[in-house]
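HUMAN:
Just now I want nothing more than another pair of eyes on a protein record. I would be glad if you read both lines and explained how they fit together. I have put the entry right below:
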Amino acid sequence: MSAPTRKRRWLTICAIAASTALVATPAGAAAGKTKRPFGARTLAQLAAEREHTISPKLKADDGGDDGNEADEIAEGADQYAEARTSPGIVAPGAYGAAWSSLTQLPRTGGSWRNITDLPYNSDDSRYRDIDSNSSGGSGNVTGRMAAIAADDDGYVYAGSAGGGVWRSKKGGGHWKAISDRLPSQSTGALALDGGGRLWLGTGEANTNADAYLGSGVYVLAHPHHGRFSTRSRVGGDELESTSVRQLRFGDGKVWAATSEGVWSHSTKTLKGAWKLEFAPNPDYLPGGPKAHDDSAAYKNITNDIAFDPKDSSKVVLAVGWRSGDDYNGFYTKNSKGSWTRISSGFGDLPTDADNVGTVTFARAAGGSRFYAIDQSPKQMASNPDSGLGGIYSAASPFGPWTKVADYKQLAADGSALTSSGYMPGVQAWYNQFLTVDPADPQHVYAGLEEVYESKDGGSTWSTVGPYWNFGFSCWSIDPAKQTGDCNQTTHSDQHGVAIGRYHGRSFVYVGNDGGVYKRQVNGSQDTSGHATDWTSLNDGTIDTLQYYSVGIGKDLDHGGVSVTGGLQDNGQSILRSNDKVMGSNFGGDGGDTLTDPANGCNIAQEYVYLAIQVTNNCAVNDGSWTTDASKATSYNVAPADNATSEARFIAPLATDAKDSNTWIAGGRHIWVQTHGYAIRSGSEWKSVYDLGAGRTATAVAASGGKVYAAWCGPCNEHGFARGISVGNADGTGWHDITLPVNGTVPNRYLSGFAIDPKNADHVFVAVNGFSRHWTEGPGAGVGHVFESTDGGTTWKDVSANLPDVPTNSALVTPNGGLAVATDLGVVYRAPGHTKWQRVGSLPAVAVLQLKLGPDGRTLYAATHGRGIYAVKVRDCD
């Protein structure tokens, strides 16, 4: 789930950002805005008893949310990828080379300890404050699951967005990671072949802003026991730096629908190159004459493959970029063996380019029935309610197809998404799965934002996994009633599905933005058609949480420390020292977080675009604010750049290293407030510097009143510019530092500062993206870590042997060492040394932020796919 005011990150307008290892979109490549719903704070207004009790003051402090905020558009959706790609196109193989370089570094002492490997309860009844989504019904959650596979022996395989592949041998739960040895932990597809082998296509294909591309396709011959290794890669490097949306088997081969066309390979041997079966625009593929065109990354998007059950040499390809392109459509081979577009005979299923977008096929056992979901680019651009073209059924993949559902029908069948501007399929480009019960060709499960089930071939549907329980008459925020009479639902945003058996019973497994859930295939429903038997399989043994940030403070009630962190689509987690289960005290996409080192219940949590909530009691609340507004204990304190959308999607937020009551926030302006965690209103922020129109802060840091601010503007490859501004927290002395395009500091995204605690003029800056060897844009330069001893006036490259990999943040340790977070782990430079070492042995996961604990000796790492880890600083020397 997500969102305080259902503060969700709906990435409706991102595209693919070049041949790098992540996915994003050039502005203007996709359709217009849709609207998103909100969480408990707004939806509780549905309870009639609440509306007349809310005071005018609370409404004013609520930040103006009305439940109909526009989606985050191009700037917000693109920022994660812009940091790694601008100012140009990144060549294939960059991440593979960086991983090889990183693994060859000498290692420090010490080892990482995963501190979030325990259940994370999004409905924790302790945290039902005004900005929480607790009581929504998702239960235990973890990070986004992109693909699921299951067999008839109780083995389930879950492929995460950024935390690798996990195996359960007990029908779900008690998970073990099985892909940590691979250079990519991003999953696009999982599939079991007829011989029981598990095939993994790396590279998440959702085309959202924080999706990484992969390193190819791998196969595990004995998935019940083995683990993936680099030796199990299929073919050569043909599929490196692609995403894989589907793996299908037919005609004696495995077929891969990728971001660079449809490819095939023999299933009998891993050797030999992949064969390119079809690419609609081959000139845009790597090595082609248009490979470096700005639009190359989304000119060969393919989505799925369906085979004629009577003749597997007859194939239908679903091809197309979700925002629309001339090549979108369905293709098959003609009598001469050439691929040709299907233009007729499909019945209700559109074949024109405007109405064929992201497509998923599903085939009944034996091939007696086929189903398809189609997302329409035309509808996504013109209909704010939904981008779903429809769900279709046919006796053959060649049609004729009959429409069996549209978004209005699904909305009327028990959906939680019935409001204008946000209805089923509003994100059909991002949320799609489809499967058929092996025992019944009429029994279908479809996934969009919600989970839908039909037992009659699509004639009727039930929303067995509603978006959440808010808005239903059975819902209650009262912890004594949990969610009232509502049953547990799944987390929203569906991506993967599989049907398997365990102890003689059949189960359907779904993967979504909150992890993995299961229910019996022929499970029970209530009178509204909602399933009554979902079970969360996110038991804490599977930690794929996607953190943007981490905060640590002393737990004054229980001793030890309290650890918080902002997450993709899973709010903010809080782990107190005596907890056996983490709770969720804020909803939405959690961005940066500030936690008082002296009191871990003083917390500021950032939602996107500098929306900030603050609490002084860890946001502990029983939900009584719904009837007594004075009992709310979280406050909206966003600076003005939030209202004008002049801040990055995940905007920088920091405290002064010498004064925790002085906070720095960055949008177009550099904002300072000096009331610490006692702040109660956004009006308490003061703008101390205007970076200028079109510029926005990418990093801020302060020590002893001296403030450093990095910015970009424009922030994409079209005219990309970056800079550093320096001044004082009181508003004096502000000036821009001259950083020429071809100067020492590269013309790339500046992602973080590290200030020497002994000398505020001694500072380091971390530079994202890849060096000139990989980034072909102008002025990309070389290096990733730079040092200044004169307050930023001049800089020196201290990258030395640091791998050429995007760096996200840096931190000066108390002993004078320097730790740097990269897209592939953490590196460290010991005091007095010039060379870098690898800290521990994290898998190939992005580390976005580093923080020191209150003891000054423990380093915490926020990973975007494997939770939060800690290591003792002294062990690194």
Observations:
- The first strand starts at residue 22 and ends at 23.
